Amino acid sequence: QVQLVDSGGGLVQAGGSLRLSCVASGSIFSINDMGWYRQAPGKQRELVAAITSGGSTKYADSVKGRFTISRDNAKNTVYLQMNSLKPEDTAVYYCKADVGQYSGGYYFSNNYWGQGTQVTVSS
Predict the structure, then answer these.
(1) How far apart are CA 121 and CA 105, in angstroms?
(2) Which residues in 60-116 belong to E strands, given as ranges?
(3) CB of 87 closer than 8 Å to CB of 14
(4) pLDDT digits (tens, 9 = 90+) for 9-51
(5) 60 - beta bridge partners?
(6) What residues contact residue 2 under an 8 Å CB cut-off, 6+ apart?
């Protein structure tokens, strides 16, 4: 089993900053892509940022220049540094990891999700 625990959300004023963290634990052989998604009330979950095991990143247009994704492979952790926050960034943020595992001598990978952390930006 694999568990992802994300944290770091909270209430912040517009223009402020938050740093989200997500730690993966359990039966992990490798972690491939990791990412952050968000879901606002009444809206679909959307990709915010993603990072490969090699460190290549991509961002949603709405957060480019304000958010930075990074990872610490030794700690199985992904971070999201969020600066210049806007009220429209308010959402529940979820981390996702593509985790490689071994079972019975076979390698396979599955996507796992964190439980979500609430980010609220007041105007």
Answers:
(1) 47
(2) 67-72, 77-82, 91-103, 106-113
(3) yes
(4) 999 999 999 999 999 999 999 999 999 999 999 999 999 999 9
(5) none
(6) 24, 25, 26, 27, 28, 97, 99, 101, 110, 112
